[in-house]
Amino acid sequence: MSYIARTLSRIRAHLSRPSAKPEENDYAMTVGASISGIVWRLYFKAYESTNDHLLLHDLVAWGIIVRPFDIASPEAAMNTEASHTNPASYFQPLPESFIQSHPVVMSSEVQKDFERFEHELAPEYPVWGNKPGTKGISLSSRMETFANFLEFQLHWPRAGFPREVSLRSATRWRDPGFPHVKAIMSHGTDAHPELLLRGELMMIAAVMHTMLLNESYLDHVIMPVMLFSFVGPSHVRILIAIHDGSVLRISKSDVLQCSPSSRDVWDLLVRYYAGGNNPKMSTTKLPDEDLESVVA
Length: 296
Prior knowledge:
By secondary structure, this protein is an alpha/beta fold. The protein has a domain at 24-101 and 167-277. Helix content is 41%, strand content 15%. The chain contains eleven helices and eight strands. It has helices at residues 3-15, 22-48, 56-62, 74-78, 96-101, 108-120, 139-153, 167-171, 198-212, 263-273, 291-295, and strands spanning 64-68, 91-92, 181-190, 225-232, 235-243, 248-252, 256-257, 276-277. It is globular and about 55 Å long.
């Protein structure tokens, strides 16, 4: 979609929503259309790359800044160093005490699910049939199973909640007034601790582009994305991204090894997955409010 087409799309949508002030419409239209074009081009740069792992000099040339962040540190969890240019500041994980107070209730159904995941993720699990074999499940299928294991933990019953209330419904993190998005993806590729996968960049760019064209969020120009990326051989990391009008900023956690019995790792992932947004971080203005830098 061209810049003109994206701008016209946002203009038509804004005209159908006359509640916003004209100057706010102009700002969001111009900035949003420009950023959507930038991230769309980033998507195709990653798509056309011949490398599974994107090289650092390519990221610099494409206008991407990747910074590490420690998802287990109190500072990261509490966002005590909140900054509008720090992607991790736009989300707030659940406190560790919350998860400790509401552990998974190991009912017979949950135990059955858990044993199934353990069986499917065992190294000797065969592609077909139930008998142990020498050929294991494919790496892409293995990572997809890990992703499903995380999703299941938001639906399993937890102590302190009525049986019909899951962690997802109890926390209600998805506020319709905010454009924040959380996504899970799995790869048939091994992890690299320093380099992004092309699939990770494609997912982030595609989600941002889609949200910038979503009529429900046309007053917003910052679209925070949290990505849970399951990578080989048995690992996961969290990426949090924003585009500040000039560059795509990505906060990248360490690559964590995981198995169904890695309770500490899964509790940490659940805290971020079921956590909320940081209402102090504005998504309707660019961090530096420098309109010229994004449309130049």
